[in-house]
């Protein structure tokens, strides 16, 4: 089955800096890659997603890039703000279900 | 449009008991997927229901079961609770099918504690 790995497991950045979170997946048949943000006491919230026919997608301060050859995708957050502090999960859809990475805790220092 | 709702939000049970959790998807969504979230294992897929039929099942014992009603609302049941079942149980709804790669929207979860 699909295996999704997320690196690093924690990330601390200064407010205003950029943050990059990387994920790798194992199943070349996977074709949909969402990113979720989870704040304490809440369920995961979809922040951006990308499908396999697109290499990059951007939504304001957030962007996702996909490299199907290398089987990795990355989340880029620019001009980070304290409210970006949360746990971020990547996931890959392998034609039957979503498989999630273990999550990364992003801390934005004011 | 209202989001995904889950009830109850918190639950405390003892070993051996059974529990039923409820999920109401976003209006118009027909697919409901369930996940278990624990600090050690992360988010793990339990099962997906679409049009009252289970479409896919994760690697969990038979003590975990679910169903979906004609109005797309879903319930999951865990029988003979074990300490290791303590987790956040999340429900996600999709317009057509999460199993086919439709976007999944999560509810706030039900925090289950087994004593």
Walkthrough of the structure:
The complex is a heterodimer of chains A (110) and B (115). Chain A contains no helices and 11 strands. Chain A has strands at 4-7, 10-14, 19-25, 32-38, 45-51, 56-59, 62-67, 72-77, 86-93, 98-100, 104-109. In chain A, the strands form 2 sheets. In chain A, strands 2, 4, 5, 9, 10 and 11 form a 6-stranded mixed β-sheet that branches. A 5-stranded antiparallel β-sheet of chain A has the order 1-3-8-7-6, with no helix packed on it. The relative contact order of chain A is 0.34. Chain B is mostly beta strands. Chain B has no helices and 11 strands. At the A-B interface, strand 4, strand 5, strand 9 and strand 10 of A face strand 5 and strand 10 of B.
Q: In terms of structural class, how would the helical and strand content of chain A be classed? A: mainly beta
Q: Briefly note the structural class of the backbone of chain B.
A: mainly beta
Strand content of chain B: over 45%
* SSE topology string of chain A: EEEEEEEEEEE
Radius of gyration of chain A: 13 Å
Low-confidence stretches of chain A: none
Residues in β-strands, percent of chain A: over 45%
- What's the end-to-end separation of chain B, in Å? 37 Å
Q: Tally of extended strands of chain B?
A: 11
Major sheet attributes of chain A: 6 strands, mixed
Terminal CA distance of chain A: 41 Å
Sheet having the most strands of chain B = 7 strands, mixed
Oligomer: heterodimer
Task: Point out poorly predicted stretches of chain B.
Answer: none
Mean pLDDT of chain A: 94
Shape of chain A: globular
Shape of chain B: globular
Radius of gyration of chain B, in Å, reads 13 Å
């Amino acid at each position: 089955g699909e295996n999704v790995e997320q690196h690093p497991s924690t990330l601390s950045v200064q407010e205003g800096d950029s943050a990059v979170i990387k994920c790798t997946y194992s199943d070349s048949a996977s074709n949909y890659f969402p990113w979720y943000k989870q704040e304490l006491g809440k369920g995961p919230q979809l922040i951006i997603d990308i499908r396999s026919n697109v290499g990059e997608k951007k939504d304001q301060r957030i962007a996702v890039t996909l490299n199907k050859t290398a089987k990795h995708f990355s989340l880029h957050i620019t001009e980070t703000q304290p409210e970006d502090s949360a746990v971020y999960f990547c996931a890959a859809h392998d034609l039957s279900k979503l498989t999630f990475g273990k999550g990364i805790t992003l801390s934005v220092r004011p | 449009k209202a989001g995904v709702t889950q009830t109850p939000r918190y639950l405390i049970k003892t070993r051996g008991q059974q529990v039923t959790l409820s999920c109401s998807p976003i209006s118009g969504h027909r697919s409901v997927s369930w996940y278990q979230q624990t600090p050690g294992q992360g988010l793990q897929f339990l099962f997906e229901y679409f049009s009252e039929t289970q479409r896919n099942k994760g690697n969990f014992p038979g003590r975990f079961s679910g169903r979906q009603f004609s109005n797309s609302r879903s319930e999951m049941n865990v029988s003979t609770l074990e300490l290791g079942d303590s987790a956040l149980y999340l429900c996600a709804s999709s317009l057509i099918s999460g199993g086919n790669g439709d976007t999944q929207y999560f509810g706030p979860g039900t925090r289950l504690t087994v004593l």
